[in-house]
Automatic annotation (TrEMBL):
GO molecular function, one term: ATP hydrolysis activity
Family annotation (Pfam families): ABC_tran (PF00005), BCA_ABC_TP_C (PF12399)
InterPro entries: AAA+_ATPase, ABC_AA/LPS_Transport, ABC_transporter-like_ATP-bd, BCA_ABC_TP_C, P-loop_NTPase
UniProt entry keywords in alphabetical sequence: ATP-binding, Nucleotide-binding, Transport
Residues covered by the ABC transporter domain: 4-236
Protein name, entry field: Amino acid/amide ABC transporter ATP-binding protein 1 (HAAT family)
GO cellular component, one term: plasma membrane
Length: 239
């Protein structure tokens, strides 16, 4: 069953056509990858889902609700969370305090917020670091804290924007393991990612963008064999 569906979505910035009648969907407990060259439209589609870009035409539905035009704050209450390329932690605060700040939006008492924050840290394998100062952590650990902060409100859909950028192979392995565990727990994910090995290991399906349109859709193995995809994008990454 589809959790999220974009139907014939077009986005124009003045005379620039950023998205041209794009349709895609995300199923329950699915990890969908968005890939394509810079300027292809994947980030615009991602930001439409996140509520930071408005559609010109077309519809976006989350579950039974139509959500195009709604603010990120409203979408967060509906069950859509996101991370950013820049981690954005409060570096002088502890790991637990960083996540508890986000938890306080949903929980009235400080004790409840801290309890839920600790649970979210445990879900990403960072509970043992709860009392460390966030700015002292390596980048890979900071990104796991950012994921914990995003899931502390119990979203149904998590949007990840180049989460693996700047990480070591070991940190990527750990993050992929965490994300797969979250998916098994009921979360759906949409990921923008340039590292094709991560796309191979993490995603169930991939949507390839080119010039504001969907060029191809399928499993990672399927899209890597698509001649049009190889010509426009994967030639840079696949021999």
């Amino acid at each position: 069953m589809s959790l999220l569906r974009l139907q014939e979505v077009t986005v124009r910035y003045g005379g620039l056509l950023a998205l041209d009648k794009v349709s895609l969907h995300v199923d329950e407990q699915e990890i969908l990858g968005l890939i394509g060259p810079n300027g292809a439209g994947k980030s615009t589609a991602f930001n439409v889902i996140a509520g930071t870009v408005r559609t010109t035409t077309g519809t976006v539905r989350f579950g039974e609700r139509r959500i195009d035009g709604r603010s990120p704050a409203v979408l967060a209450r509906e069950g859509i969370a996101r991370t950013f390329q820049h981690v954005g932690l409060f570096e002088s605060m502890t790991v637990l305090e960083n996540v508890a700040v986000a938890a306080a939006v949903r929980h009235r008492s400080r004790r409840q917020a801290r309890r839920r924050a600790f649970e979210a840290l445990a879900e990403v394998g960072m509970a043992d670091d709860a009392q460390r100062i966030a700015g002292s952590l390596p980048l890979g650990h900071q990104k796991l804290v950012a994921i914990a902060r995003s899931i502390v409100g119990d979203p149904r859909l998590l949007l990840l924007d180049e989460m693996m950028s700047g990480l070591s192979d070991e940190e990527i392995d750990r993050t992929v393991t965490v994300l797969n565990r979250l998916r098994r727990g009921g979360l759906s994910l949409v990921v923008i990612e340039h590292i094709m090995e991560v796309i191979d290991r993490l995603t169930d399906r991939v949507v390839v963008f080119s010039s504001g349109r969907v060029l191809a859709e399928g499993t990672s193995a399927e899209i890597q064999q698509d001649p049009a995809v190889r010509a426009t994008y994967l030639g840079e990454h696949v021999a």
